Amino acid sequence: MKKIDINNPIILKNKIALSTNIFEGSTIYEYGVEVKFKCPICQTNNNVIIDDNTGNLLEDLYIRKKLITKKEILKNNIAKESPHIYRHLGELMIFQNLSALYLFSKCNNCEAKFMTSFSFGESQPSRNVCYISGVWLIDEINTV
Q1: What is the domain extent for residue 37?
Q2: Furthest-apart CA atoms within the chain: distance in Å
Q3: Distance CA 77, CA 93 (A)
């Protein structure tokens, strides 16, 4: 599965079922985590590798890039608002003590587009976590 950049507003279509959404242990920094899912359009098995260098801050989607609203993120349970004590990590949170991140990718076969939202890091001393909020099939709105 190829990671891509998207610059037009997006519409969330449906959330893809995942067999595993939480990964823990020291090896996640060494090898990353492999998120596997099936494309709902062509039924091709896809995977995305997430490591500590993957993803951008989720709030960039509505503050800087203006691809989706904060209201849509909250309504679709992609993330929740950070409690005041964690605001230094950003306005949104997926897993306690970790920033909310996202990446875009496309299907290996039909090129359907997906957004994966997640948190990655050391949530407590010696507790390394990658928590996947979800993978959504998305449509890009052509603004031209």
Answers
A1: 2-140
A2: 48
A3: 11
